[in-house]
Design goal:
Protein name: SGNH hydrolase-type esterase domain-containing protein
Low-confidence stretches: 219-225
CATH class: Alpha Beta
Radius of gyration: 18 Å
Number of strands: 5
Strand order of the largest sheet: 2-1-3-4-5
Mean pLDDT: 94
Strand content: 5-15%
Structural class: alpha/beta
Helix content: 40-55%
Domain SGNH hydrolase-type esterase: 39-196
InterPro entries: SGNH_hydro, SGNH_hydro_sf
CATH superfamily: SGNH hydrolase
Pfam families: Lipase_GDSL_2 (PF13472)
Organism: Drosophila erecta
Oligomer: single chain
Length: 225
């Protein structure tokens, strides 16, 4: 059985139960807030919420960010099954997960992403599900970078034609002409600086804005009698 599709809580290796505490806080946010956009994912979107680019693009969009640093596909799947999307009705769910599944094949990870998409659709039948591409990682070309590219390709194929599911490439400009990634874009060659966040968030913001604007109810311009 593919471990990427088996809902599993993140093991509490540190012994402080922080992961479960964060999950419970997210559930509480669902009860108290009415977001248009929810982000579900891993370290990539957990770290970008502290950047100027995030504040510029997404703070005004009524977003909740339910990303946790070390999550793999199976951990996000567990969170969805255990309340992460209950008591809430966002217009868009942005799912970014898979880069931490370093021990699994590209096909296994892609199936894990699809399992999350399926579970989101069960919880939110009419929400748009947006899948930003997994980013390249490592200063120089390496097997994990190649695998992330393969995951993106497989996910594109698995989700093509699915109702209100859309992939979006967000990695443009991160790999330089010599194949390297600059620490000015990724401070640890995996997570993003403000400059790197701006590069990935612009195309995502454009897509989300387009979806939100297309689904705005039209104002009734009929003169009142």
């Amino acid at each position: 059985m593919n471990p990427c599709v088996l809902p599993t809580p993140l093991p509490d290796l540190d012994g402080d139960k922080r992961w479960h505490s964060i999950h419970r806080r997210f559930i509480s946010d669902c009860r108290e807030k009415d977001p248009d956009v929810i982000f579900l994912g891993d370290c990539i979107f957990e770290t970008v919420q502290d950047t100027e680019a995030w504040n510029q693009y997404f703070a005004p969009l009524h977003c909740l960010n339910f990303s946790i640093r070390d999550d793999c596909t199976e951990h996000v799947l567990w969170r969805i099954e255990n309340g992460a999307l209950d008591n809430v009705n966002p217009k868009i769910v942005v799912l970014h997960v898979g880069t931490n599944n370093v021990r699994n094949s590209a096909e296994e990870v892609a199936e894990g992403v699809l399992a999350n998409v399926t579970k989101i659709r069960q919880k939110l039948p009419n929400a748009y599900i947006v899948l930003p591409s997994l980013l390249p990682r490592g200063q120089q070309p390496n097997k994990l970078r190649e695998k992330n590219a393969n995951i993106n390709e497989v996910v594109n194929g698995l989700t093509k034609g699915l109702y209100r599911v859309q992939t979006v490439a967000i990695d443009k400009g991160l790999i330089q002409s010599d194949g390297s990634i600059s620490h000015h874009d990724m401070f640890d060659y995996k997570n993003l600086t403000n400059a790197g966040a701006k590069k990935i968030l612009e195309p995502l913001y454009d897509l989300l804005s387009q979806i939100l604007n297309e689904n705005e109810p039209e104002n009734d311009l009929t003169p009142s009698e």
